[in-house]
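stage 2 :: seqdesign
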């Protein structure tokens, strides 16, 4: 009997030692299969009834028809499960389109994944990338049917030599991020521009996958085995337990998953739920009781710990300690050296010093506390000042105060009172940059208060840049900066309040579309173009806006346009016509040439304005999943309609009713020139302003309309032959009146 008990104890000790040397990913529930083929299945996952945690999504099936067997999570093959990282990698499908030598579509496949049934599972925002590969290709990832996210990634080839191995920034390969708590998607891929010769890049591909599992090679563009060779690229899924926080879940001890004694709970950072982990100095599974749970690591037996103790090592629960022989004491450094004592410890001196220190603290503690509080408040304000770029901002504010209406530096208390402590009912706009609140100042002036997101350092740079830009602008069609606040934790800007929403809302929101007449549409276009011309040519230092779109054009009650959001704008040295920058902008409005080369010019704003002009004409959005794959982007849809002489099929009904055919074709021709693929072929903003002002006068004094057949023939003619453009350098002549370009938009 005694021998049998001794044998059991020996086996138990061996098991504990084996567990202490295992990685977290190998620990399954006792009595359950630890692996399927070559993949470890750690608890709370498990194969079969009773082997996984009793919540949806943790059951793994093992298919033994494969050699070796393969694990599956629903229909998807499992590549890896990690307890420490809280991730699972599953197999993925690649969407593709392939074309023959004449540009005809041979075959295609659209694919997607859905995690909706598993509430604690989301696609990892940090470990996945959406990737598109091919020449003149657009990859679309559409999550709009389960949320509000639609993303696109354009991949262009200006020349066959432009794609580069290892680079995925828009030349032959494009990659972009996905949002948090992303659970379902559909991936589609299409060609942006068709070429007769597709031998260099016959196929286009797009997929969501683990970012570190794929590296682009130029040879991918004509690799006939691309799908087979990249079949192993997985998509990473973040998993969590349940849909409650640690605090709430811990109250129900019967279902709380962190059962190991030496474990702790932490909340998921990508969606609901929580996960468990072993405390420092322990190893094992935090989801299991007993020897499978978190066990103490014997640091004294770890090779990398042995060198830290010069003499004896003592293992402690979750830690270790080094000891020195009698007559020596230890130094607290990485060597844990033992040094021989030279003097006995001066106990009397230490006791006297401690007594005097306590007496001093007792007498001076109230004063010390007051000094500490005041110093802490000063340091906090200094921290926010530096964090928000205080020194640079002071310089910008001083230049701002030289304008006709000086900027004001507001306190946090003033802005909290104006916005009713940032009440959600005061919100008038919200986006990736932060939130805009309506506020009322003590002088009854209504303002817009723009508050950036907490912890987003990129917004601080844009905040400083916007002050720098707006401090140099004085134009009636550009939103005016009223002031800012430097002492808050996040940057805060204060603008004049524009009361009638954005141009995008009036074009696309139901119930507002009919509110803008053709006369107002042309005037808004002319005012916006005038503001951009002012930025390019008449401001003290030329400015490229870099994010022109209908959502950044505000309207007042009289439908007067106000261009806003200069966070991405850039000042241009007087002797430069282009600058090299990190590509920024909004898909659907982004200049393809700028996206490809990184060279920002005034013609980049012209392209974006061209998209806005097409929005005004058609009422269509810049990107739409309801249109065919080839015409997803509004610019492609519009240009193909112009090429096929069917422009009147896509114009908004109200626009057709209020305008003459001759005039509408002229506006469409102007938009077509703005959307030229090469920037050098586009007009300048000055030329755009001149032509729009002339077209507005035609609307005010219409000519005798031509018949439809005669008018449509104009689609094949140049703008000059239609009688719409004059000599731009001398002004625009309409009905005998010459309009100087320098007068426009001022």
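stage 2 :: out
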């Amino acid at each position: 009997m005694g021998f049998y008990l001794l044998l059991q104890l020996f086996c138990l000790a061996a098991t504990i030692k084996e567990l202490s040397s295992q990685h977290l990913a190998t620990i399954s529930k006792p009595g359950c299969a630890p692996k399927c083929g070559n993949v470890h299945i750690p608890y709370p996952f498990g194969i079969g009834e009773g082997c996984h945690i009793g919540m949806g999504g943790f059951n793994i099936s093992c298919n033994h028809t494969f050699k070796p067997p393969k694990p599956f999570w629903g229909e998807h093959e499992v590549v890896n499960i990690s307890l420490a990282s809280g991730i699972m990698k599953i197999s993925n499908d690649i969407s593709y389109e392939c074309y023959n030598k004449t540009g005809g579509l041979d075959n295609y496949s659209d694919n997607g994944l859905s995690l909706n049934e598993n509430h604690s599972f989301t696609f990892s925002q940090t470990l996945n990338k959406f990737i598109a590969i091919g020449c003149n290709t657009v990859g679309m990832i559409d999550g709009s049917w389960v949320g509000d996210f639609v993303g696109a990634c354009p991949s262009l080839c200006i020349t066959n030599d432009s794609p580069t191995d290892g680079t995925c920034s828009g030349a032959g390969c494009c990659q972009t991020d996905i949002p948090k708590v992303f659970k379902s998607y559909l991936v589609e891929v299409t060609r942006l521009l068709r070429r007769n010769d597709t031998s260099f890049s016959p196929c286009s591909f797009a997929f969501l996958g683990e970012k570190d599992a794929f590296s682009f090679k130029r040879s991918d563009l004509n690799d006939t085995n691309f799908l087979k060779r990249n079949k192993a690229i997985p998509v990473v899924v973040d998993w969590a337990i349940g849909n409650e926080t640690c605090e709430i879940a811990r109250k129900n001890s019967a279902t709380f998953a962190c059962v190991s004694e030496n474990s702790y709970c932490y909340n998921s950072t990508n969606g609901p739920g929580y996960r468990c982990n072993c405390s420092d100095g322990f190893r094992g599974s935090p989801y299991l009781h007993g020897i499978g749970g978190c066990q103490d690591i014997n640091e004294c037996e770890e090779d990398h710990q042995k060198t830290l103790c010069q003499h004896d090592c003592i293992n402690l629960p979750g830690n270790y300690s080094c000891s020195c022989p009698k007559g020596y004491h230890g130094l607290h450094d990485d060597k844990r050296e033992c040094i021989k004592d030279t003097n006995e410890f001066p106990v009397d001196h230490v006791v006297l010093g401690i007594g005097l220190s306590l007496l001093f603290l007792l007498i001076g503690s109230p004063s010390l506390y007051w000094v500490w509080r005041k110093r802490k408040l000063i340091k906090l304000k200094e921290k926010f000042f530096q964090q928000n770029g205080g020194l640079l901002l002071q310089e910008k504010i001083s230049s701002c105060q030289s304008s006709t209406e000086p900027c004001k530096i507001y306190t946090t208390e003033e802005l909290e009172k104006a916005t009713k402590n940032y009440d959600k009912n005061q919100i008038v706009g919200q986006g990736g940059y932060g939130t805009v609140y309506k506020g009322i100042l003590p002088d009854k002036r209504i303002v817009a208060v723009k508050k950036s997101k907490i912890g987003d350092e990129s917004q601080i740079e844009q905040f400083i840049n916007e002050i720098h830009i707006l401090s140099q602008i004085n134009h009636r069609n550009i939103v005016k900066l009223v002031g800012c606040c430097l002492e808050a934790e996040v940057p805060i800007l204060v603008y004049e309040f524009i009361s009638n929403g954005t141009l995008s809302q009036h074009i696309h929101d139901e119930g507002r579309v009919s509110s803008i007449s053709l006369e107002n549409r042309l005037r808004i276009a002319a005012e916006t173009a005038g503001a951009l011309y002012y930025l390019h040519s008449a401001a003290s230092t030329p400015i490229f806006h870099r994010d022109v779109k209908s959502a950044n054009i505000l309207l007042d009650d009289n439908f007067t346009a106000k261009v806003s959001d200069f966070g991405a704008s850039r000042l241009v040295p007087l002797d430069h016509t282009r600058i090299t920058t990190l590509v920024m902008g909004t898909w659907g409005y982004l200049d393809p040439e700028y996206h490809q080369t990184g060279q920002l010019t005034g013609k980049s704003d012209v392209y974006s304005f061209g998209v806005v002009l097409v929005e005004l004409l058609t009422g269509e959005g810049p990107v739409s999943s309801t249109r065919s794959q080839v015409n997803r982007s509004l610019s492609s849809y519009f240009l193909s309609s112009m090429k096929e002489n069917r422009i009147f099929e896509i114009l908004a009904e109200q626009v057709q009713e209020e305008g003459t055919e001759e005039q509408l074709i002229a506006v469409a021709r102007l938009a077509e020139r703005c959307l030229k693929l090469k920037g050098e072929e586009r007009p300048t903003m000055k030329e755009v302003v001149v032509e729009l002002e002339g077209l507005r006068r035609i609307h005010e004094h219409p000519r005798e309309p031509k018949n439809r057949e005669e008018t449509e023939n104009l689609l094949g003619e140049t703008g000059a032959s239609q009688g719409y453009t004059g000599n731009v350098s001398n002004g625009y002549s309409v009905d005998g009146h010459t309009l100087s370009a320098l007068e426009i938009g001022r």
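stage 3 :: structure notes
- The chain has five domains: 19-86+241-296, 90-239, 299-340, 383-497, 502-743.
- Residues 1-25, 399-404, 703-746 have pLDDT under 50 and may be disordered.
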